[in-house]
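Below is one such record:
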Amino acid sequence: MNTRIALLATGGTIASRTHRAERAVAATATELLEATAPPAGVAVTPVDLAARFSSAAGTDDVLDLARAVDAHAAGHHGIVITHGTDTLEETAFLLALVHRHDVPVVITGAQLPLDHPETDGPANLAHALDWACRGRPGVTVGFDRQIWPAIGIRKLHTTARRAFAVPGADPIATAGPAGLVEHRRTPAPPPLPVPAHLPRVEVIPQYLGVDTTALDAALHAGAAGLVIAAFGDGNATPELTRRAVALLHGGMPVAVTSRVGAGPVHGHYAGAGAALAAAGALMIGGLSPWQVRLLLATALAHTPDQPLHTARRWLAAAREQGAVTPEAPVPSSG
């Protein structure tokens, strides 16, 4: 019996062509498949879900994609999604949060359009299809001959072919002359339910001289939760720290991650990260601010009365299973 794979196309550079020096999404799932060499013995079902660059997608679009994955999982052995690279790390993470089947999901894309003489899309898609046939549960990202877990994935270069990685980790598999070579397994953490809608959670960036303007705007817009993209291992300015502590005491869920690409988030410093941690903020290393935003929003949708508890429970399970990059030990003061 053939291995059955669903190919869900959502647009992106991998499906684009260039006209008058501008790229536009112009290729269907069938056309992408025709440009690729699928593994032998694989029956691929092409499905067109969207035709846009991922910068134009919203959270409702990704929730629709999650529901499409859920629907196609019943009749297929694996699912491959073609996606734009701009928000791929966010889509991959949200799918990893809610994917409840053992059917593998692999997300891929391209840095060069389909009609470019050196396009990387067909090769990326071929490796994604190959990996999906391995039957490894969970959501992964396939890009430039490497397979990565969706949790913690980041886009690290705007144009390079090797654009994605999980800081502090090695790829799950790499492609060589004999095909994909698997290096390790990454378990899938317990899924959260797919929300009907994600509550508004805003990311508040920290930078030299920042005040509370962005925080005030977020609250005025009706934010139900906040993520602080902090300095270092979890610091914020004194003014913002005081406001965030007051919000935590008033019941607003606040998560703290780092604007730095890798490393733990503990919050060691008085009047800054230590005050946020003591007030009950969720301190998260190993995830980008944009992924933490989706974790907190999904937790809010699932358990609006205790979102930080739900997020902590998911994070603890993910760390125990090795699905989130382990944090480095806290250095001694001596």
Q: What stands out?
A: Residues 98 and 193 are 6 Å apart (CA to CA).
